[in-house]
Amino acid sequence: MSQATNIIETCWRPANILSYAVSLPTLTAIAWYHGKIDRAGRTLDDVITESSQFADTEYLSGLFQGDDLPAGERERLAERLASLTGIPVSRWAERNLRLSKHDFRAELLAAEGLVLYMYDGRYAGPPAVPEPAVEGSFSAHVGGPVNPTGVSAIVDALEPAIATHLKDFLEAGRPGDYRGMEPPADAEGRAPADVWRWGATSPFGDWPYMDSIARAMTRAPAMRLLICIGLFDLTTTIGAARHAVRQSAWPRERVRTAAYAGGT
């Protein structure tokens, strides 16, 4: 479901305050799901709306002020962040109101000895032994191995499920073999020759994704864009998708977003 049109805007670089603000609604959704924040009379939509409004205004403003933020205001924001994420006030205070998505998934269920699954925060598992990430690889960007929590059954089920959906439900005939992010190598460790590659750039490179889509929509007046959001996806978050639409040059009347209670 998840979009990747503006990852460069939302990468978890320490100085990129925007990344913390756009990630917050997803942290809230996952904390709500696991019962780590007050759920009394509050639906998932309620807490996402509340978190989004706070992230867009008070939180982003506080981050922008940095060390100039008054101590009393800093404490107030830390308390509000704790109420929206289930992470203690002390952790927000000592982190200067900044908590990366990776820190969050390691800390939310730490008392149970569990780490959240990066691509769907509803799932969790015991911490895995970290594997060294090759510089420039996908795992290097997501902060470790692609499947760090030991729930490979989720990933392994995706490809056959998509193939079945294309064939039986969409009646798409045989559109071709569906290739996952990491297709199986041959006996000598080589990837298939026709594997989909990003070319000279990666989804995490600094290039204008949204401009490419804008040009395509200009050339094809009938083109419509649907951006799907997985509410529990820690990779491309709720706020990142909304930010992409706001900052793009896309004809707004031809763009639609849809949110689903799922992951990537």
Task: Describe the protein in words.
- It is a single chain.
- By secondary structure, the protein is mostly helical.
- Helices cover 43% and strands 6% of the residues.
- The chain has 10 helices and 4 strands; from the N terminus they run ααααααββαααβαβ.
- The chain has helices at residues 7-10, 17-33, 44-65, 71-85, 89-94, 101-107, 138-141, 152-169, 209-219, 238-247; strands spanning 115-116, 124-125, 225-230, 255-260.
- It has a two-stranded antiparallel sheet. A two-stranded parallel sheet has the order 3-4.
- α2 (17-33) packs across α10 and α3 runs antiparallel to α4.
- It is globular.
- It starts with 6 loop residues before the first helix and ends with a strand.
- Residues 131-151 have low confidence and may be disordered.
| Large-scale geometry | globular
Our measurement of the CA-to-CA distance between the termini, rounded to an integer number of angstroms, reads 5 Å
Continuous helix count: 10
Low-confidence stretches: 131-151
Q: Please identify the oligomeric state.
A: single chain
Features:
single chain; 264 residues; mainly alpha; 4 strands
Write the layout of secondary structure elements.
Layout: H1 7-10, H2 17-33, H3 44-65, H4 71-85, H5 89-94, H6 101-107, E1 115-116, E2 124-125, H7 138-141, H8 152-169, H9 209-219, E3 225-230, H10 238-247, E4 255-260
Parallel strand pairs: 3-4
Antiparallel strand pairs: 1-2
